[in-house]
Amino acid sequence: MKILFLCVVILSSASLTIANDNPLWTSRYSGITTGIDEVRGMVIDNTGNTYITGRSQGSGLNNNYDIATIKYNQNGDSVWVKRFNGGGMGLPVDEPHDIAVDNLGNVYVAGFSIGQDMTSDFITIKYNSIGDTVWVRRLTGDIGINQIAYSLDVDGIGNVYVTGTGGGNYLTVSYNSNGDFLWSKTYNGIGNDFDAAYKLKIKNGFLYVTGISRSVFGSSISADYLTIKYTLLGDSVWIKRYNGTDNNYDEPEDMFIDNSGNVYITGFSRNTSSAESADYLTIKYSSAGDSLWVRRYNGSVSGLDEAKSIAVDNSGNVYVTGRSVSSNGYDYATIKYSSSGVEEWVQRFNGLTFNSYDEANDLALDRFGNVYVTGTSQGTTMIADFVTIRYSPQGTMQWLNRYNSPANREDAAYFIAVDSLGFVYVSGNSVGSNLVADFLTMKIDKSTNIEPFNSSIPDNLSLNQNYPNPFNPETK
To answer: What is the pLDDT of residue 451?
Structure first.
């Protein structure tokens, strides 16, 4: 029997506690100019260090961006900051999309760099634990061909695997620990059109990539989930394509691999040809590539529901989160599925103003199965804040942390991680006193000094224009 627990979060003092502006530390990076700085990735290591990468405006032209990578210690102090400027002519833009750290503390960043011919190249950088550049690898395509890296991972012996798009096809590349080229693989889909891999994961000696693949040449509304399993030598084990409703647009946003090699992918799938009508779409494949189940989530009203992040606990329960349209705006919508795909609960968070823009962007689990969700949420003044929520494994909201930066401007969290002690790390973009975005990273106490919060339903509700997602880091 299907068990469903649906809770639209109407806050009450009896059921919710809230913490405001109480992280253990916050660290802001404003770059080397008064320009824009936007986070593109975060990772933590086993000793409490936090690593951030993003794009940061440099000196010179307004569109001059460098790759800025930062290491913070467990107290939030900056250990080192490294900037990479690829020296491109005309349009000097360098931008990261992912970051990883290995067991020795080496840091890896992947993204793109505009080259001398004004097209983008794969760029992969390795730093050692003290921030020295070990190597930089630029992968250049044919003249006029753009290549953009979106995701990377590192295996147990330091080999690096990077994926993205090159010439409109999946492009996956491997380097050894010294930066020597090992192999590359491309995938051109059945539509002979645009294909781009957005996520890469390594698990149990295999490599997994997923992204979009257009199935009809020349059609911008016909794209599918496309997932490939490789050996670490680059041999293809299986390829799986998911085409949703009526051959419409389907795009994955995140992927998780469990210890048994099952593959979980979530994102969105249009249920009509309209770009503003889509459902969460979550798939589970076996290690052999068999489709075990597919689940769609269509929210409380017809419109755009877009899953952003997925995680799986040790019992095989699956958690997804993202944004879901409501009658007055967008809500966080977090779902728990059992290992067999049964929807066990749905939690929606409708902010503090009950007609606001609320978007969850990332999700993490702790070792007890508690669920942590972060994103951006409008406050009582309609200014967006970082909002991080912890749910129990049963879906009960345990605490909510809202952070409004001192400048009282727009703040949007995009990345979350939980360490083995239960401390929570959140990073995103925050508009500072100079009125442009900075990197903003914080550490939240696992016990969180929460205070009773009472918010009754207001007497009058008004319809406001949907709030645009502030400085969304997605560039695909």
So the answer is: 37
Side chain identity at 466, as an amino acid letter? N
Give the full edge-to-edge strand order of the sheet including 424-431: 25-29, 437-444, 424-431, 411-418
pLDDT digits (tens, 9 = 90+) for 19-38: 554 799 999 999 998 899 99
Domains (ranges, CATH) in the chain? 5-452 (2.130.10.10)
- Other beta carbons within 10 angstroms of residue 123's beta carbon come to 27
| Contact criterion met (CB below 8 Å) for 361 and 372 | no
249 half-sphere exposure, CB direction, 13 A CA radius: 16
**How many Å separate Cα 356 from the centre of its chain?**
22
Report the C-alpha gap between 365 and 391 in whole angstroms.
Answer: 10
pLDDT in tens, 217-272: 666 668 999 999 999 999 999 999 999 877 889 999 999 999 999 999 999 999 87
The structure tokens 């879906």 sit at: 395
pTM: 0.90
Dist. CA 425–CA 331, nearest whole Å: 22
**Displacement of CA 235 from its chain's centroid (Å):** 27
**Overall size of the chain counted in residues:** 476
Residue type, 476: K
Residue 144 pLDDT: 77
- Within the chain, how many helices (H) and strands (E) appear? 0, 35
